[in-house]
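Figure 6 in text form: structure in, sequence out.
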């Protein structure tokens, strides 16, 4: 590889050496060997167990240590994804955004990509947590390929975690047997176990366990917030990147339920299966658990056998209180944070049938006594203006909510927060229809354009270089800024965010002071998060 090519590929990082990490690598579980990446300087290790298979009596239990092995484990292929309904393609999420292949309860494995040539490299570590509404997702999703960032000088780790009923089932018997008077949140405990594995083993792969950044998008962003709030994750990471998941309401995506209600849901599920006890449920096959699950238990989500009714819970152990309350009390893990959203995130869509009358009617229904202030700030006199104002006000609301979340965070945090607004339209099927949709920034931030057959241009490649450089810089130093990049200011008193993608640079959270003032008044009291819920990657 020539120096010129190396400079073009790596830009903000030093050119990685062509010699790969000496193998096999010694972990606490045993020796592992990997395979060369597409880039000769990167070695990939796929399917390393970080916990015991969660089957039998470990179904719906905290992850336990993986059994050590003899000889050399060939970590050459991805493990099965955790049990879920595999969706092959659901526009705008095309092939590269979806899990593929087999699913299994035996799924607690992780993947490592490293550019290190020795165990003493002490490179920054980037741990990615996938989205999927806590009902789906996988560490083997093509767009998450860790080589894109690894070749820029980081060790990348992507673990599986349990989803749906397998990852979030609650039940009074589970609460009793846990030893912590808690149940549910098994998927979050899987994430913590993976982070503990990183802490204990990543140095052998050339990573620095003292410089770990966690990143996730959608439900992965919610996970990042939960981990930042959880005392169980203390000391396991020093920076956080929640993508499409920060709002004035704390999580921005999915609120956590209460333990008592979730336990009752578990009892109803048990009854629906004709089971007399937790032991009976654990004795059932995967197919029996999934078969004819009623709506009350399945929730209609993408995840197998347990969707939205089996999700996050304030269990008193993983999550002692709701995330926003933990932040307000200053009890969170205070880590530098980079967060943002996309221009056409979930819920931000044009209403082509909007009229002046319907726009005003909806404003008065939604904003109550503040409706006059809203209608003055977003004045419309024609139907086309009403259509445009619907989108503009939704985007403004999301940016304002994120900004006020960041300002509230600053009341108890000493670390900086950087926010972004992604506006570049991902080329491909129906791009004009979907715009900068939920998760469309991932091929750019993760530097994985090569995992997609979308018609990318030199403009896309330039944006991917820029976005991945920001992510590498933040993971390395806690600040996204670096040589040759448009300056990205940390959040301060000025109500603005960093526009990234097209025409990068700071922009106000709304176009004029009247609109900003409206949102400040609106968010002076708690309101349900809008525009970031639903089906997440």
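Output sequence:
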């Amino acid at each position: 590889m020539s120096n010129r090519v190396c400079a073009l590929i790596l830009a903000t990082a030093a050119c990685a050496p062509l010699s790969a990490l000496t193998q096999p690598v010694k972990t606490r579980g045993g020796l592992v060997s990997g395979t060369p990446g597409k880039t000769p300087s990167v070695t990939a290790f796929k399917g390393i167990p970080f916990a015991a298979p969660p089957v039998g009596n470990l179904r719906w239990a905290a992850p336990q240590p993986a059994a050590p092995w003899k000889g050399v484990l060939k970590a050459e292929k991805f493990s099965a994804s955790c049990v879920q309904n595999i969706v092959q393609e659901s526009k705008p999420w095309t092939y590269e955004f979806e899990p593929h292949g087999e699913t299994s309860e035996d799924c607690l494995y992780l993947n490592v990509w490293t550019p290190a040539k020795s165990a003493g490299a002490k490179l920054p570590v980037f741990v990615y947590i996938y989205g999927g509404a806590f009902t789906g997702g996988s560490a083997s999703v093509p767009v998450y390929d860790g080589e894109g960032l690894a070749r820029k000088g980081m060790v990348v780790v992507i673990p599986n975690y349990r989803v749906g009923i397998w990852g979030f089932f609650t039940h009074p018997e589970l609460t009793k047997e846990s030893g912590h008077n808690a149940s549910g949140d098994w998927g979050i405990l899987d994430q913590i176990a993976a982070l503990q594995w990183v802490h204990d083993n990543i140095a052998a792969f050339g990573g620095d366990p003292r410089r770990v950044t966690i990143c996730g998008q959608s439900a992965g962003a919610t996970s990042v917030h939960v981990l930042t709030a959880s005392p169980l994750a203390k000391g396991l990471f020093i920076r956080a990147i929640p993508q499409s998941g920060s709002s004035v309401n704390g999580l921005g995506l999915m609120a956590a339920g209460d333990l008592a209600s979730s336990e009752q849901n578990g009892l109803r599920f048990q009854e629906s299966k004709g089971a007399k006890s937790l032991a009976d449920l654990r004795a059932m096959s995967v197919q029996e658990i999934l078969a004819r699950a009623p709506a009350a238990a399945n929730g209609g989500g993408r995840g197998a056998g347990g969707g939205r009714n089996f999700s996050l819970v304030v269990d008193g152990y993983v999550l002692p209180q709701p995330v926003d309350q933990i932040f307000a009390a200053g009890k969170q893990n205070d880590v530098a944070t980079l967060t943002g959203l996309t221009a056409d995130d979930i819920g931000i869509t044009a209403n082509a049938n909007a009229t002046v009358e319907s726009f005003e009617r909806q404003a008065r229904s939604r904003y109550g006594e503040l409706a006059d202030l809203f209608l003055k700030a977003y004045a419309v006199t024609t139907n086309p203006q009403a259509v445009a104002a619907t989108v503009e006000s939704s985007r403004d609301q999301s940016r304002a909510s994120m900004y006020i979340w960041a300002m509230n965070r600053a009341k108890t945090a000493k670390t900086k927060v950087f926010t972004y607004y992604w506006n570049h339209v991902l080329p491909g099927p129906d791009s004009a229809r979907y715009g900068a949709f939920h998760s469309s920034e991932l091929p750019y931030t993760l530097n994985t354009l090569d995992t997609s057959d979308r018609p990318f241009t030199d403009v896309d490649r330039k944006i991917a270089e820029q976005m991945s450089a920001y992510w590498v810089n933040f993971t390395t130093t806690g600040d996204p800024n670096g040589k040759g990049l448009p300056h990205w200011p940390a959040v301060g008193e000025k109500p603005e965010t960093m526009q990234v993608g097209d025409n990068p640079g700071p922009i106000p959270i709304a176009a004029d002071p009247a609109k900003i003032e409206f949102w400040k008044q609106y968010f002076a009291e708690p309101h349900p998060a809008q525009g970031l819920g639903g089906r997440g990657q």
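Caption detail: Residues 328 and 367 are 25 Å apart (CA to CA).
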